[in-house]
Predict the structure.
Amino acid sequence: MPDDLDPSRPDEASLLERVTQLESALRSRPVIEQAKGMLMLVHRCDEDQAFRVLIAVSQASNRKLRDIASELVRALPGDRALPPDLAEAFDAELRRAGGR
């Protein structure tokens, strides 16, 4: 069977989509790492706990993880308030994480 007819081989469109997704993930990674570090410093938690908090807040607020991380990174250094929905989600998850 010729390679271009092999159903197990991804087509060019799916490969390009995958490349786009990977590039987006690479661009998002630094801000997520910064947000994790901030949570670790402020709340004295380990890296796994900080990441779980970010994930839980992302799910609770129905927003992308990279967007949650960006909000946190922008807010903390300037001592700016987070949007109320995010502040509530962070408070709830940090209380829950503290009780684990």
User: Anything to note?
Assistant: The radius of gyration is 18 Å.
